[in-house]
Fold this sequence. Notes:
Blueprint: H1 24-32, E1 52-54, E2 57-70, H2 76-95, E3 99-101, H3 107-112, E4 116-122, E5 127-142, E6 151-156, H4 164-167, H5 181-184, H6 190-207, E7 216-217, H7 219-222, E8 226-235, H8 246-249, E9 260-267, H9 279-294, E10 299-304, E11 313-314, E12 317-318, H10 324-333, H11 345-359, E13 363-374, E14 377-389, H12 396-412, E15 415-419, E16 444-449, H13 459-464, E17 472-477, H14 486-498, H15 504-511, E18 513-515, E19 518-521, E20 525-528, E21 542-545
Parallel strand pairs: 4-7, 9-14, 9-15, 15-16, 16-17
Antiparallel strand pairs: 1-20, 2-5, 2-8, 3-5, 4-5, 6-8, 10-13, 11-12, 13-14, 13-21, 17-20, 18-19
Helix pairs in contact: 9-10, 9-14, 14-15
Amino acid sequence: MPxxxxxxxxxRPVKHASVGxxxxxxxxxxxxxxxxxxxxxxxxxxxTPDDLTSVDGVEHVIDFDAxxxxxxxxxxxxxxxxxxxxxxxxxxALREQxxxxxxxxxxxxxxxxxxxxxxxxxxxxxELERVRYHYRDQALVERTQLPSGPVxxxxxxxxxxxxxxxxxxxxxxxATDADSLWYHYAPKRAACKTRIVAEQNAINSEKTxxxxxxxxxxxxxxxxxxxxxxxxxxxxVAAPTAWPEHDQLWGFAGDPSRTKVSVYAFFGVDHDEADxxxxxxxxxxxxQRELRTKLPALRVTETNPSAWLLxxxxxxxxxxxxxxxxxxxxVVDNTGFPAAVGTNAAKRAExxxxxxxxxxxxxxxxxxxxxxxxxxxxxxxxVEIRTWHGWEDGSPEIRQRARWRYLEAFxxxxxxAYTGHSHFxxxxxxxxxxxxxxxxxxxxxxxxxxxxxxNYYDEDFLAMHPRGSEKLDVVVNGxxxxxxxxxxxxxxxxxxxxxxxxxxKQVLTGMAVxxxxxxxxxxxxxxxGEVGNAFTPTAGAxxxxx
Length: 546
């Protein structure tokens, strides 16, 4: 499916190179940086982005200079198309160093970018125009990989989509299709470093043979595959402690007549909805298990299409006394199968097939009554959590149905959570599919628990919401988010936002999960829109009692 960027959620870890170590390639890149050097204008207020709250990430402004080659006389649109493609590769190269950037598809940069053109003659025949540009953006840097100085950055050059096979496997962290090469691009891999160094040595050697290096390039330079530059990261003053607007969620500010807090939680499919081991289903049931553990008063109050979720049969006989915990163990842990199934592979497969059918492509609604109290005011309310697991991409029809569900959720939810593939540029959650008219004029919180969602999902929704960041907070990931544990992370986001007490840092801390290769994994989550939130517990704590 060429329109689907995959895999965007990894099944195994990607090893990130340490920024703090200087390799021989790093020394070479430092010497080359004068070719494409980044500079930050002191006191330039336009460089100061919105403050972000993050536990694992530190906010910076990132600057670097780069260039592309186009045919002589090519329009700015052609040049910007080449720049856009090159900047896409920066996402892979930067995330390899624990850095996420905000400008979705470089929309802001491309809109205001100043292009500087130089006509060059190619030694041996031909001409090209070298188009230089500057990139500035909001960046999150993984706390464990904070650099002590400029960051070496190697971008892909030219039409790397057409040369995808040539760049693999040396310069990717796993095999991929051409459309996803930018995401898996890993220039710090040893085999890729060797290619980068060899190309630059060839370019440097050619220069000694040029009559005028300011107006000529050699064949190796004209046909280059890589561009070495350096990025400057300027720290931003840390955001002050902020809380979700708990008082607005629970009706103590703005709408005292509120009787319900609505949560919509969506889980996409990883690769195959019919497979009971599909990560989407596994994490959906992990989400359910974590919610039931933290909010034990929850009960299923609606299914649509209707279904008896705990009714299963084997050999025509009903399996007695099935519980939610039983189903969760079967799918999440692959244990606890009933005696009627035992170790029989065929019967296990049949039981799990029934689980897939029951828990996919339907609304499962959990509710619980609560009493909420603040500053002597007490009222009865309901928490309603509407959940969905199923396909949200794969065909125009599937995407349209998913968009309808998201339209419902955007309008009715107080708390929204999406867990699944990012589908960069192709999925049903792309911001350009929606407008401010699709959101109510009240406080809402959105989570996009997917890979690099910091680059795709926060700024646009904040811009379109009727009151922007005054009434919207958005939680996003700056780095790849591995499937394993994402259900637990999303559940703890819901629990934290509904707590009435947790700050945003506490919510993010609670979303970290323990993975086999890393304890407390956090894909550099951040909250945008939170600065300026008015709620603080010192003005009156909120207590919530089931």
